[in-house]
Amino acid sequence: MATFDSQQNSWTAADVMHFARRAGFGVTPEIAATLAAQSPSSTIDAWINQTADMTAFNTALAKADVVSTGVNQSIPADPAPHPFRLEGWRRQGGIPNAQGHFAWRMQFNPNPLQEKLALFYHQLFATGAEKVDNTAFTVKQIDLFRAMGTAKFGDLLLAVSKDPAMMIWLDTILDRVRPGSSDVPNENYAREVMELYSLGVDNGYNQQDITNLAKAISGWTYTPLDIQTDPNNPQVQRGNDGTFHVNMTYHATGTIQFLGGTFDIGAPTTYGEGCITAILTQRGSNCAAFLAKRLLTFFVNPNFSSAALTDLQALVLAQNFDMKAILKAVFKSAYFFDISNHYNLYEGPVAWIVRMSRMLCPSLAAATVPTLPSFPAWRAVAPYFHNSGQNILDPAGPNGWAEHTGWINSNTARYRGKLAASLALGEVLTGSQQLFPSTVASWFPTTPSSPQAVYDRLAALLQPATVPAPVQATWLNGLWTSGFSWDNSTATQVKVRELAFLILCSPHAQLH
Amino acid sequence: MSSRRQFIRTTLAGSAALAGLTACSGGSGTSTNGGGPPPPPTPAITGPILVLVQIQGGNDWLSMTPPNSGANGGAYANNRPVLSAITANNLTDLGSGVGLNKDCTGLDLLHAAGKIAWMPGVGMPNPNLSHFTSTDYWGEGAAVPDGTGWLGRWGDAAFSASDILRGVTTTSDIILMNHGRKRDFVAVTSSADFNYPTYLRSSAQVPDSNFLKSGYAYNLNNPGTTIDVAAAASEGKLFYDAASQFSTLITTRTPSVPYPGDTGYAIANVSNQLSTQLKLVAQMIASGIPGQVYTVRLGGFDTHSNQVNDYPKLMRALGGSIKAFYDDLATITTTVNSQSVKAQDRVMVVGWSEFGRRIKENNGGTDHGTAILSFALGNMVKGGFYGQGYPDLTKPDTNGNMVFTTDFRSLYATLLEKFLGYSDSKGILGATYPTLGFL
User: Fold this and answer.
1) B14 contacts in chain A (CB < 8 Å)
2) ipTM of this model?
């Protein structure tokens, strides 16, 4: 575990920003300066323990309207309860609403790691909402990731295996083997849970293991659909909560061989659960390596060394797959803060636009003041997620997305440009409503004295990798061709916004 | 899983068996046109355009072109008691003991006209039943995988610096097949507003797009630029350059025939997933976009369950979209070297999937299998059956899957040498593979 033995005992504001970009969705320079004065260990502990007060966030969440795109310009004194309309069985409109809901939570959650881990696990256990066809179940799965993000990985793996959205997505509910019959099981989940979610392709299992695991989980399902009207809001109808149970008519019984062990899959109360658990117990080393790769790729260094992988694998095993302990060890390590690990990872498009909106749009406290522009219209932005490379909540396949370099191609460049224009240039959707409400004045707590000072402040907010000085000079000389003055004129605001746009579109701003 | 470099590492290790192949047993230059219609005269291929259709999810082609007689027919019926009962009464006889699912709208007509080459049993010696690993194997198409795709390597070798739009995909992602060492294919997912935001192009504002262009150039020419920044700059510049060409060429177009999903299309409720992409390809061809290879995708073929209901819909989307596209091309006249050429005489459509599916059905569908059905379709194609024959369903491998008959790289060698006119297929594929005789 040598890679992670050395601790980061002190840090700079730049280190804080690096940590916050990876373990969350960034912090402003002001917050970074405050945290830099505190010890890394206690700050990282609090961040991972998710100790920030959620009261204001929950209050705002219940009243935030990012769905009806025409109303985010003003907030009534007493907004109506929760308008996200995530009721599941009525699918139409459900996915963009849920995407908007997820993005809103990423932007404002005072415990950002909760959302970052939800995103990490969503990218791992990628489940497509279109096939699930029940937005409530889709949201329920993301809630599972929020609740168990720092739990033991094995516990989460079992919970995901019994999650209704997953059981629909990979056909567990259609895996039917009558006891004593020669019915052929449906292999879909049995294959993918090992290939994609715990071990890696062909890493410690064979076709017979797949077939037998499919028998072990046959008959797994959830409670039947039961539509109920919300008594507090007759417009809203909700499906059942998807409680897991085993349909014994379609559950195979007897003993099977799986990953070298023998399992009684008809044993009461578990009915095959032991086989899911056995993935970690029978193939712990393989699973630890798999998880280590995912963690390194998502949080630290996608081009990790074999030593880093081996050391994190050992750490995962030593911590018995306890994600809280693992994350603390990783984020407190000097390795994580090594300068070579800054800006070596392309940021996913949703995390990217969320982080940039956190920097340029009002904070939660400011956004909930009725006189300010309020929240980004995430419901209207969500349809751009697909072409920017990450249609969150609705991936095309169970392998999710090719992360890191997979985020970058000519098409994503096209659509990141559109998102950047919406955010930086203040794109107006209808009337005077901005998709991403912001004011240039709010970006500058002190008056900049030169074009370079404007750039430096925007760079501190948007935090790109260092843009070469000649490129900066080209931009600044082109924008401020005849001297510099700072005022509230449209001309000044246009220049500042265009400079923010150029930074956002630069190759350096795609890294984090 | 993640980075290209990482991919290269893992692929080099994981594909050792595949890489060990230097030649294949499958493939030949002879047609086995078993009783089909006589091939029509072959038109000269002027300005060839290849449209590759990715049938994503693992096409259960035993339900598309099932055996309808002989030992294979018996094995098929025995292993598919539910699915075979449905397809048995819904087939057009193709000859050679094979039928075509009538839900695959329109391909029966093109077969009768002698315009489809069927290649059952295309695959590889060491197949992988993972969607993603197998898709990468198909993408690599190399004797020695190096993290690039066979079309990407062809682009590296054949494209000039100004050939920005010669390789185009209509998908929003770039699969390994389209990834070259020097450059990727360009993704064009829609023709509307394929440009920088309007604001930047308005004359009243500072010409920001020039700033972007100069920034890309600086970063790509500066030796101190990191690999990651250079890659992002390269993709940004690729879109910038593509948009600059595309926006000057593209014209609006109304298809000459209804496609699946359109008002007026004869069958209701057919997915427009593929037809939307093929319409876009037709629009690009009609506009004179210099694309030589287009890759498109139809997903949804991972039919582990509910196949009885889902597969006919997939067939209608696949067959109907391709037939409409073929018909639509008849009305497009293009210019090649100052000569007028019908688009229909330039375009060949080729279908592929990452694998076929298990011979034995499960309780409602089929699980992952091995060898695929490929097909090539166009006016320049000599219709019939090609390759080393239909897999023997009575002799599956130890996992109950088909044993391939024709190496997939024979198909690639054929496309490179005999259609795209690139003679050095060995340089792209890493070894010499026999070509097939459908061109």
Assistant:
1) 201-202
2) 0.90
* In-domain check, residue B51: yes
- pLDDT per residue as tens digits for the range A487-505: 988 889 889 999 999 999 9
Q: Please name the residue of chain B whose CA is at the shortest distance from the CA of residue A207.
A: B399
**B261 inside domain:** no
Tokens representing A372?
A: 């300010």
Kindly state whether residue A191 falls inside one of the protein's structural domains: yes
Record the pTM. Answer: 0.91
Establish if A181 belongs to a structural domain. Answer: yes
Judge: A195–B238 Cβ closer than 8 Å, yes or no: no
Q: Distance between alpha carbon A407 and the CA centroid of its chain, in Å? A: 14
Cross-strand partners of A7: A333
How much helix, strand and coil, in percent to the nearest 5, is found in chain A?
55, 5, 40
Q: How many whole angstroms separate alpha carbon A53 and alpha carbon A63?
A: 18
Residue B251 is assigned to a structural domain of this protein: no
What is the spatial distance between Cα B243 and Cα B68, in angstroms, rounded to a whole number? 50
Q: Are B130 and A410 an interchain contact pair (Cβ–Cβ within 8 Å)?
A: no
Show residues of chain A in contact with B3, CB under 8 Å.
297, 302-303, 403-405
A245/A229 Cα distance (integer angstroms): 24
pLDDT of residue A19: 98
**Token couple for A161:** 């295996």
Q: Does B126 touch chain A (CB under 8 A)?
A: no
**Of A427, A26, A334, A478, the residue nearest B213 (C-alpha):** A478
Q: Are B141 and B149 in contact (CB under 8 A)?
A: yes
Domain extent, residue B396, equals 4-191+287-429
B295: in domain:
yes
Q: Rounded CA gap, A250 and A272, in Å?
A: 13
Counted domains in chain A: 2
**Cβ(B91)–Cβ(B387) under 8 Å?**
no
A 184-213 residues with CB < 8 A to B: 184-188, 191, 195, 201-202, 207
Q: Report the distance separating Cα A512 and Cα A203, nearest Å.
A: 31
Per-residue pLDDT for A225 more than 50?
yes
pLDDT score recorded for residue A230: 58
| Pair of tokens at residue A30 | 């002001």
Contact between B416 and B422 (Cβ < 8 Å)? yes
Give CA–CA dist B145/B430, Å, rounded: 9
B410 min Cα distance to partner chain A (Å):
27
Q: Which residue among A174, A195, A396 sits closest to B130, beta carbon to beta carbon?
A: A195
Q: Domain tally for chain B?
A: 1
The parent domain of residue A254 ranges over 152-230+237-282
Question: Which runs of consecutive H residues, i.e. helices, occur in B144-225?
Answer: 150-158, 198-201, 208-221
- Condensed to tens digits (0 to 9), the pLDDT of residues A332-360 reads 999 999 999 999 999 999 999 999 999 99
pLDDT of residue A70 exceeding 70, the answer is: no
* 8 Å CB contact of B367 and A505: no
CATH assignment at residue B78: 3.40.720
Q: Does A428 touch chain B (CB under 8 A)?
A: no
Q: Can you list the alpha helix ranges (DSSP code H) found in A133-283? A: 135-148, 153-161, 164-169, 188-195, 207-216, 273-282
- According to the 3-state scheme, what is the secondary structure of B385-434? EECCCCCCCCCCCCCCCCCCCEEHHHHHHHHHHHHCCCCCHHHHHCCCCC
Amino acid (one-letter) located at B279: K
Burial B394-412 (b: 16+ CB within 10 A, else e): eebeebbbbbbbbbbbbbb
B253 touches chain A (CB under 8 A): no
Q: Is residue A497 part of a domain?
A: yes
Q: Which residues pair with A360 in a beta bridge?
A: none
| Dihedral, CA of residue A512, residue B2, residue B6 and residue B11, to nearest 10 | -170
Report the distance separating Cα A263 and Cα A49, nearest Å.
Answer: 37
Partner residues linked to A246 by β-bridges: A220
Distance from the A6 Cα atom to the nearest Cα atom in chain B, whole angstroms? 26
